[in-house]
Structure formats: C-alpha cells, structure tokens
Amino acid sequence: MKDKIVFWGQDEKENDILVALRLRANDNKVDIWTFQKDKHPETFVDKMFQNWDDINPAEFEQPYLHIERDMSQPTLLPDEIRTKSTEIVARAETEWVFKVLSMKFAAELDAEIDALHTIINNLKEYDHEVWVTTQAFWEKISDKFRGRDINKEQSIALREKLNGCFSKLKDLRKAERFEEELQKNADKLTKQLDEQIAYIKKGDANLGDIFDALKAIQDEAKEARLSREVRTMVRDKTNEAFELLREERKNIRSRRQDFRVKQLQETIEKLKVSIQRDQQDLEYQHNRNKMGSQLEVQLRDAKLNMLSKAIVSKEARLADMQRSLDELLQPTNPPIGEQATVASSPSDMVEELPNENA
Fold first, then answer.
1. 307, pLDDT greater than 70
2. Model confidence over 124-144: pLDDT tens digits?
3. How far apart are CA 224 and CA 107, in angstroms?
4. Is the pTM for the entire model greater than 0.85?
5. Which of 158, 250, 281, 333 is 20 to 30 Å from 173 at the Cα level?
6. Letter string b/e over residues 239-248, b meaning 16 or more CB atoms within 10 A of that residue's CB
7. What is the pLDDT of residue 30?
8. H/E/C letters for each residue in 144-211?
C-alpha cells in the first residue's frame, strides 16, 4: 500500500468530509487532513482521488483541518472521524504499522553496520573473524529481505554499506598478502644467499658455480617485490657474498702458489742431493787407479762422460727451477692469471749501474 490514502468520512457532527492521510514513517507519525465536502469544488475532490500522490499539502485549498497523530496510538483515526471505508483504513493501519516497524528494524541494522564500519576502520591489519562477522551480516540482511522484514530499497542500502566494509577488509587482506609476499621473497633470497656463503666458507665448492648462482640471485632480487629495507639488506648480503668469493679465489690461488713453491723447494733439494751424489761419483772415478785393461779404461771414461753430462743437465734443471722459485717468492709478483700491465713512472725508471767486479 502507498503512504497516502484518501476516502470519504464524517466528522463528529456527521458532516461529510474528505479525509486524506499521509504516513511519515521516519517520524512514526500520520498527517490527517479533513475537507468539508460542501466547501470544496468537485474538481478539487477529483484531483485528490486521482493525483493525491503528486499533490503538495502546501497547495491544499482552504479551508481544512490538519491533525498529526502518533502511530503508537491504538487506532489510525481519532474518534471524531468516522468512515464507511473501514477496509481501506484497517489495511493502511496494518501495513503502515508494519512499515514503521520495518524501518525501525532497518535503522537498527544500519546502526550495527555503522558500528562494524568503525571496527574495520580501526583495524591495522586484516582480521578474518571480522570478515566472518561481515559475511554473517550479509546473510542476515538477505534472510530479512527474503522474510520481508525489510524491503528491497532497505536491503540495497544496507548491502551497499556492507560492501564498503568488504572493500576495506579486502584492502587490508591485499596489504597483508603483499606483506606476506614481501616476507616470502625476503626469506627465499636470504636463504639462497646464506647457502652460497656457507658453500664459500666450506671451501670445497666450485667457485664458478657459486658465482653463477650469485648472479642469478642478484637478477631475481631485481625483479622480486621487496621492501626498501629488505632490498638494501639483500644488496648488502649479495655484495658480502661476492667479496667472500673474491677472497676465496685469492686464497685458492695463494694455496696453489704455496703448493707449487713447496713442490719446487722439495724438488730442488732432491736435485741438489742428486747432483751432489753425481759429483761425488765423478770425483771417485777421477781418483780411481787408472791402470787396467783397455776395456776397463774405456768403461771408466764412458762413466766419467755420463756423470759429467748428467751433472750439467741437472744443474741446468736446477737453475730453471730456482728461477721459477724466485719468481714465485717475489712479494710484488701478482697471482698467475691476474698479471696487469702497470705503466712505470719516471721515478721507477732508474738505470742499473754496472758492477765494478763484473
């Protein structure tokens, strides 16, 4: 039923009157206008019956009486107004009471959603329990609409408010998931870097493979979603890993060089001992009795020749090894594979004077 009705009635003096009612549901009030039939033209009466919904009460033709009646009253009409249109009045009374109660109920729901809005607006992070509560409100509104406790317009308005709650919660959930993604990326990259650093410190890994892995982590970090602080941390940790890798490479080259020095020193000592034995043998052969058969003399000469040549060969090898050792032991000698061409300054270009004893 509409919020306005018009019908014929009688006043307390049994005069015929035109009665117009308008529900003000928000105020829980009913406006009642009465017009004396004999004091208004038929055109006005026809207009009221046909277009009452479109008529502004301020345009009503005088004279008329206006009564404001509270919907909490037991009857819709006061005792001084009677009508034969009891069915219309009774129906309006029933439906308008329900409408007022429905609006009050919708207002209560609206207040509850406002309170929920306040809770959500004060959230600093996503709360699943609040999400469940909001969903329960949505189901409650749907249930009340299906049960006709609230009308379609009220249902739409309440759902629009709830959509605002859902939007805020979704934003918080996105932010939480974004933070989770940032933390996940940070944990993943940190773990990878820690593993590579551990491999470097362990000292038995392929440094080339570690270098490739660090480059891959570096490239992954460029594309990953990271907070500014984490990105700085990952960059610093990557630089630390590369620096450790460079130091380990230097250490490996140093250990290799130390191993070569040790090998050369041991070989040189063995070669010196060997040369010393050959020289002793040579001296022994020179001091032997030169008497004997022609074959014995030839055999002794061959042995002397063999020992002399062996000593010369070993001494040449010893000189080569000593030069190699001296080069390795030079403190300014860069590691093999990293020799750099350094331009000498004028102060470095000092002519070597000849030795007076040369």
1. yes
2. 887 888 889 999 999 999 998
3. 48
4. no
5. 158
6. eebbebbeeb
7. 93
8. HHHCCCCCHHHHHHHHHHHHHHHHHHHHHHHHHHHHHHHHHHHHHHHHHHHHHHHHHHHCCCCHHHHH
List, in order, residues 6 or more apart from 153 with CB less than 8 Å away. none
Cα–Cα distance for residue pair 190/217, rounded to 1 Å: 10
Torsion sign across C-alpha atoms 235, 241, 244, 249: negative
249 Cβ neighbours under 8 A, 6+ residues apart: 207
- For the stretch 240-296, pLDDT in tens is 888 887 887 777 776 777 788 888 888 889 989 998 998 888 888 777 756 667 787
Domain ranges within the chain, ordered by starting residue: 4-84, 102-177, 179-251, 270-328
Spatial CA neighbour of 210 closest among 228, 197, 224, 191: 197
What residue type is assigned to position 92 of the chain?
A: A
Nearest partner of 137 among 150, 126, 125, 124, judged by Cα: 150
Mean pLDDT of the 83-94 span: 88
To the nearest whole percent, how much of the chain has pLDDT over 70? 89
Q: What is the pLDDT of residues 140-175, one digit of tens each?
A: 999 988 988 888 999 999 999 999 988 988 888 777
